[in-house]
Amino acid sequence: MLPKNPLKDKPLLDNINIHSFVLGSLGHNYYLLGEVEKAVEYYEKALAIATETDNKQNKGLWLGNLGNA
Q: Which of the listed residues 6, 7, 11, 19 has the most CB atoms within 10 Å of its CB?
């Protein structure tokens, strides 16, 4: 659905936590569309950033969404 990323998965936003939230939001939208595998892919990317930055709130959010997916 989205075009390939020419920047090879480098964050496009200055704030890495916002980047994580955008990825997770994309995952949620894919989940709502029934694209569970794609949703899991984006949730995992968002979770990796939340883990790296020790953002416990987002980490819990993405883990919960992964469980639902």
A: 19
- Angle ∠(55,57,60) on CA atoms, nearest 5: 105
CA separation, residue 66 to residues 3, 10, 14, 19, 25 (Å): 23, 22, 25, 18, 12
Q: What is the pLDDT of residues 3-60, one digit of tens each?
A: 566 556 665 566 788 888 889 999 999 999 999 999 999 999 999 999 999 989 989 9
**How do the domains of the chain map onto residue ranges?**
31-68
Q: How far apart are CA 25 and CA 19, in angstroms?
A: 10
Alpha carbons 52 and 6: distance in angstroms, whole number: 23
Q: Which two tokens stand for residue 2?
A: 């989205």
